[in-house]
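Subject: sequence -> structure tokens, single chain

Hey, anyone have a minute? Need the predicted structure for the following. Not urgent.
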Amino acid sequence: MDETIPVSIIACLEALGRRLLGITREHRDGPLMELEQVVLEAVRAALPELLREVLVTATSSIALTKAGLTATCPQCGKRTGSQSWRNRTVLTVCGKVGFERPWYVCPECGHGWSPVDETLKLESRARLSPGMLEWLIDLGASEDSFVDASRVLEKLTGLVVSSETVRVRTEERGALLEDKQQKAMAQVVGTQEAAEELDRAPGKLVVETDGVMVRYLDGWHEVKLGLLGGYVDGQLVAPSYVAAREKAEVFGPRLLAEAARRGALEVVSWQGSVTGPALAVLPEVVVLGDGAHWIWNLAADYFGHRTEIVDFYHASEHLWTVAKALYGEGTVAANNWADRQIENLLDKGIKLVLEALNQAVAPTSQAAEDLRREREFFRSNAHRMDYPAFRQQGLPIGSGAVESAAKHLVQKRFKCPGARWSDSGAQAVLAVRCRQVSERPLAA
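Reply:
Had a minute. Here:
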């Protein structure tokens, strides 16, 4: 059935049409760059009034109040009629919009409210629409700085919001997300079950961890970063992220909470007799890291059924360290030794590499110390370097994904020139950044 378009909406569209017609005369034979700019400005100028007319027409409580409808007080439940009409102005993604809505004051408890605010899901005294708030938070966490976020917003939309407002709103949302994360961490540790709706990683669950240095007000500190995703047909897919400046023992529950959300604590089967105690079998988790002790300690604490793998690139770097200590940096002998041992490690396994390390003779005391340290590294991680077997099983052997995330998730946003972060500000932005890059809603 055809509906009659409200006169107020038609008036807005006709005004825009007349403006566009004027542009065709004022800018006849103009270049595209000029035409697109003036048309964009005309449409932007028309959007607030268009949104206002749609809002007024679409909101039932405005029309019903004009007809004398009473409303129920949300505080005490008493019904009352409207007292007056009040203006409200909100900055939206369509621009600044002002509209008049009914205002009620309960004679019983004195509470004042407007049903229109509840219908529109506008918080009391909020000056930004939910849509605009999402834009600010998204830009505040993704651009190089809050100043850049404000500038990009104005350039692309014509809307002006101060960089300080962007900062405050971004950090407010991040603080809410962090609070939610803390509650999830406590719940998972206590129940050993996911605290949030499951988003199972496809294929085999892979956990990668790394650390990246960020400058805070009191100096440089390591931000720990965790990546969790599925491994399917040789590809890491659907990654999600957690990050925080905190000690390993505190970061562990954060990593576990996200792993639980990705399916790590789901029971696959039960082992044991029918009448006796049963043991829950959880999914296998592949843990990839650079060899730092805290990574394997976390893996042992939180993932029972796991395969631990040292990132092959880091293992190769350790072999290059030995080659330089034995034969000197840049020498043919060093290059030949490193290339041979890296090939052995990848194709034949750790045994030949350990034999080569045991047979190596250090030319200096410093080389002897380097050799001692690297021998210990390979011995202690030997079971994590069975690369031929890992490859045969179709398991990943490189943690490049989390190292890449350290750059694009953390460093890009946190290492702009002159940046010094407070603990709370950094963690708030980290919380938003992890949500963004994980492609999860920013709503707390």
